[in-house]
Amino acid sequence: MSATHRALVTNAKTWTTPSALPFVRQAARTELIEQSHQRCAALGLTRIERPDFEPLMRSDLSVARERNQRLFTHAAPVMEMLFEQIVNTESMIVLADAQGTILHSVGDDKFLERAGKVALSPGVNWAEHSKGTNAIGTALFEESPTVVHGGEHFIHANSFLTCSAAPIFDPRGNMLGVLDVTGDQRSYHQHTMGLVRMSARMIENQWLSDDFGNRLRLHLHSRVEFIGTLLEGIIVVGADGKILGANRSALDQLDMSSAALRMQSLTSLFGTTVPAMFDHLRAPLSTPMCLSLSNGRQFYVKARFNGTPRSMMAGLGGDEPASQAVTAREAVLVDASPPPHPANAAAAPPSAFSGLHYLKTGDTQIEAMVQKVQRVLNRDIPLLILGETGTGKELLARAVHQDSNRSRQAFVAVNCASIPESLIEAELFGYEDGAFTGARRKGACGRIVQANGGTLFLDEIGDMPLALQARLLRVLQERCVMPLGSQKSIPVDIAVIGATHRNLREMIEAGTFREDLYYRLNGLVVRLPALRERSDLGVVARRILLTECPHGTPEISPHVSALFSRYAWPGNIRQLANVLRTAAVMAAGAPQITEHHLSDDFLEDVQRVRSSVPAAAPAIAAPAASMPLDVPAPASVDRPAEPTVVAPPAETAYDGTSSLTLGEAEIEMIRAALAAANGNISIASKRLGISRNTIYRKLRWGKGG
User: Fold this and answer.
1) 605 and 566 inside one domain
2) 187 and 111, same structural domain?
3) Which residue among 168, 474, 507, 597 is buried most deeply as judged by most CB within 10 Å?
4) Which position has the higher pLDDT, 55 or 22?
5) pTM of the entire structure?
6) Per residue in 130-139, pLDDT tens?
């Protein structure tokens, strides 16, 4: 057993003592379960509900996984390590996103089959409104580690399970998802919750290190021997001494919320300064400092910094964490404009791919739209984005935020269609302790307050209940929020971006959308064109393929090019990405994508609409000379100066004579196996006869289907 494994198990035992885990005390747990049951009953669920076996469509699950790519990257190795601790215990490990949708699971094969009988599998939502009281959904609601055992599950069909779940937070206190260990209720072990909590902390610490790797970090604990362990608190400090973020252990030890801590500075918190910390950092064989809070509580603190004090004090490292930027992988779905020259691409920060410049394409509609948005940037003018599903409305909203003066503050996205009507008011406006049955003891600030100083993105605003529209209008007019159950207003400073695929004017005439709210939201209305209306289909397709296959990008055959141009693309860019991702896997190193590599359901759709849908987009062809496609690629990959999407004239199947190396062929085989297993790594590893760790090591998630 490695040192990390031993530390995990040892710390788990420490964390499962009553003093360390007060939530396991029976009285508190009983109250928590009762409140959850009351919420479920209020939502109209019954205890004899049948399991819902209708998970997300494969394409939607792929989108959810892409949206949470970074979470999976940090969680996957931790899940594998955790699985080694519970192997052969009739258990499984589950990763769910912040909405409760299961993204990935790993576990004993027999138990995975049993769990599948109650729809505990990727693509299924396990939030309370969907599956009643369960550790994943209840941990999401309570925002704290939760155990739900046996008959405590609201739905009787789940009573054979015992579940221990812990939420995962980013350094700003935003929930990223939930890590859960589920097993047969007869196999419950008291240390399981400790293992889950420690694993969640490992993911959070990796996320924090990834966000602020170039910043001064203070590692602290009230006991010096715990510095350097998973129990240590970590605080990130900016060049000006302001607190930028912290891990959960630091918040627990300081007994402060993330928002409250970020209001502090190094001086107000510990009575010291950044130069003083660097003086101590430079001292040879320095021992942890002993610093005190204003209330006299003492902490041992050790400073760490990856760069030089000069670079820190000069402010060369940006405060913007990677979690606030759209990744290059997300931007490629909409961005078809020429990025920086390849020589500079490696040095470009992740946030460079998220600004409005990178949404520009050779398409004149996109160009005109971006110019309009740039004119109103930082002028306190609301933005309303119209467009079909899958056109990239949230990516545009994030790009606006990234280019605005608010980019260093939070971007808070609220999907008004995905939150149950009974909960959306509390989600948006927050609530006080005791505001309603099941409310958290300390209340919740709400999404609008979370966006204070930053940007609030109201996606699918047309689906907001009519009664809540009046409250939202008052907030936008008065710039104050009054949480449920409170008599005190909270001032907020937010930029508002709305988005919808609905026709709001028709809704106003039908009386389902308030006219005064509409005119409050539509300071500038822009429409994202559907893919079939754009002139850059070839550029976008090429970019997607370069993302999926950076080390051997296949061309698109003329026949497939013509087929794409005749298709209406009801799912827009999101659908195109899914079609090309599958085709790239099926091509398995072939020099070009042919019709044989396209999925049967897509070909059936094309055949069904071929006679009724007129051609609406130009054929995929080489970019015009005035619109160069200069897509950045890894520095180790040689690329032609002017890549095109035009395939060789001969449309032939791959004959197996490509120059793939043995390693590349192995990776392609793994990709094909994953595609055949619908992304289930456990099944793919069994079919290939290799371990899960080998699959993770051979290729990154998202590159294998």
Assistant:
1) yes
2) yes
3) 168
4) 55
5) 0.46
6) 899 999 999 9
